[in-house]
Amino acid sequence: MGIRMWCETLDVRRARAAVLVAAAAGLLVRMVIAANSPGPADVRFFQGFAKAVAVHGPIRIYEQSLPGLPVYNHPPLAGWMLLGLNSLSEFGMSFATLIRWPASIADFLCVLLVFEIVRRRTALRTAVLCAVGVALSPVLIATSGYHGNTDAVAVMFALAAAHLLADRRSPLAAGVAAALSISVKFVPVVAIPVLFVAALRAGRPVLVRFAAGFTAVSALVWGPVLATVPQDLQRNVLEYAGGSYRFWGLVRFADVFGLPDSVITFMQGGGHFLFVLLCVAAGVRLAWLRPAQLPGIVAVTLGLLLLLSTASGLQYLTWAAAGMFALGFWEGFAYSCVLGLTAVLGYSGRSAVRWSEPVLYLGAAGWIVLAAGLATGAHRLLTARPGADPPGRSGRAEVSAPRTSQPSGSAVT
Predict the structure, then answer these.
(1) Crossing angle of the two packed helices 204-228 and 41-60, in degrees rounded to 10
(2) What's the pTM?
(3) What ranges in 145-203 are assigned the alpha helix state H?
(4) How many CB atoms lie within 10 A of CB 97?
(5) Are the C-beta atoms of 291 and 202 separated by less than 8 Å?
(6) Distances (CA, A) of 229 to 69, 215, 222, 239
(7) How far is Cα 221 from Cα 219, in angstroms, rounded to an integer?
(8) Which of 57, 122, 232, 413 has the largest CB neighbor count within 10 A?
């Protein structure tokens, strides 16, 4: 038995080394792209935001009109990040390169996270394949290495929170990660109730520690802004519904099928909150039924948000990219191939917000691939047997309960 455990430990160490090499290679590719490409218009916008933050501060930025720039719709932690990047650029470093570092580094960490999440639920070789898939995902290379933005950072913290809570049994750290996820971009807010439900299912001590970590960081990051410019924060961040483009998902299909403009306007306006509530409800239900599958459930919730999103942006494809590999290799592979091509062609066009006809068709196909992957992933989560052994030789990316058993009620099970 001792020899077997030693061999298994050695195999995990070798797998981790291989995954670390893949993550480093993926990071290098992203860094090279960031250093040698101008990026989309968002790079220029972020540089403008950074200069404005340097003048007005990360708190007062929300009440500024910012002529020539879009709405500053980023949570408070993003402002502090921009302040730091702007300071680095004053030492001669290119801001256009720097703004893509956070997302690229977040992808590096997501590679390691996906490996640790998947290896607890399936064969080791499948975990390696899923992690390498994240490292080499054309969706993430394009959106992080070329576009930048903060989506990848928010997703990384959301997955980290789920992993820390369900697999590492570290609710305090999970609460901190959860708060950081919505403090850099508000998108993972749909996963916050999911995390709280899983903490509740684990017992009162876990819930208290998770809530303490979440509350402390939220108060530290959001408190000064809420106390100073609450209405501006609400208008710019909390009520932001995305752009009015009709390139993706439900809005795209509604436009193709000739639905009235009033319907589409409602979908992109107040109606989008209904889709957000649907994502939250689905995630909460899954978390109540299968709390041990929390990382996969967070992935499903973020993927469902993208599926039902009424906003069109190539960088939004990041929301589901790593999570699909956490659900299964083939789900992640199909998503990365179809929507990776969508992203590459979209960024290669005249503008990232003017999709050509082939990109529109690829986006529609990718939406179907995403829907199918979420369906198979959610089914796998629901049918996983608690305490089931990994499939071993099959190599199939099935998500079952973590290998490490815990006494009932003492942790997320």
Answers:
(1) 90
(2) 0.90
(3) 151-166, 171-184, 192-202
(4) 20
(5) yes
(6) 20, 20, 11, 14
(7) 6
(8) 122
Q: Return the exposure string of 306-324: e unless at least 16 CB atoms fall within 10 Å of the residue's CB, then b.
A: bbbbbbbbbbbbbbbbbbb
351 three-state secondary structure: strand
C-alpha Rg value of the chain to the nearest Å: 21
Q: Does the CA dihedral 167-168-169-170 come out positive or negative?
A: negative
Q: How many Å is the maximal CA-CA distance in the chain?
A: 68
CA distance 185 to 263: 28
Cβ–Cβ < 8 Å for 8, 82 = no
264: tokens are 């589409």
Tell me how far apart the alpha carbons of residues 109 and 156 are, in angstroms, rounded to a whole number. Answer: 7
DSSP 293: G
Per-residue pLDDT of the chain (413 residues; tens, 9 = 90+): 465 555 566 588 999 999 999 999 999 999 999 999 999 999 999 999 999 999 999 999 999 989 999 989 999 999 999 999 999 999 989 999 999 999 999 999 999 999 999 999 999 999 999 999 999 999 999 999 999 889 999 999 999 999 999 999 999 999 999 999 999 999 999 999 999 999 999 999 999 999 999 999 999 999 999 999 999 999 889 887 667 788 999 999 998 999 998 888 888 887 888 999 999 999 999 999 999 999 999 999 999 999 999 888 899 999 999 999 999 999 999 999 999 999 999 999 777 778 889 999 999 999 999 999 999 999 999 998 654 444 433 333 333 344 443 433 333 33
- With a CB cutoff of 8 Å and minimum separation 6, the contacts of 128 are 15, 18, 19, 115
153, exposed or middle or buried, with CB in 10 Å at 0-12, 13-18, 19+? Answer: buried
- Taking the CA of residue 169 as centre, how many other CA atoms within 13 Å lie in the half-sphere pointing to its CB? 12
Q: Name the nearest CA neighbour of 73 among 28, 29, 42, 36.
A: 42
> Residue 80, CB half-sphere, CA atoms under 13 Å: how many?
12
β-strand partners of 351:
354
Q: Where are the alpha helices (DSSP H) in 258-397?
A: 261-268, 272-289, 294-307, 318-327, 329-348, 357-383
Lookup result for tokens 């959301």 = 158
The CA-atom distances, in angstroms, between 231 and each of 181, 234, 237 are 22, 5, 10
